[in-house]
Amino acid sequence: MLGKIVVDTSFKHKTQEPIDIGMYGYKSDFFLIPKGGEEVFLKSIQIVEKPPVIHPRDFPFPPLWQELIKRDKAAEGVQPTPKDFLCPAVYDDPTTVVAKEGEKPSFLFTEFKPVTPHLYENLKLKN
Prior knowledge:
This protein is α+β, with helices and mostly antiparallel strands. The protein has two domains: 6-44, no CATH class; 54-120, no CATH class. The chain has helices spanning 38-44, 63-76, and strands at residues 6-7, 10-11, 14-15, 19-20, 54-55, 58-60, 86-88, 97-98. A hairpin with a 2-residue loop joins β2 (10-11) and β3. The longest helix is centred in the middle third of the chain and has 14 residues, at 63-76. The termini are far apart.
């Protein structure tokens, strides 16, 4: 990197000592554009908008839980529906795009890899 880049920092609304960010950024993965050259730079690059990631509305319960649901429904004398084995997904981020009813999400929560496989040895899993 040629030259020295010194920036002012602040913490809790108090200005701190200026620091040289050149010593932190040993790779020149950035460059500064002069104010007059911003318009030319923005015209030279192509901005690609990515489609939003659509998150699923629900996900399948783990296999042991599904087995419990089957047994509970059998004890009640009711045949379980596929919807009984799905748990509604809750997302904390308000900007998350959730699939509407009937809409296909960008990905699904389908792959289940147990952390403790010995608990699943006697359970017949669907493949």
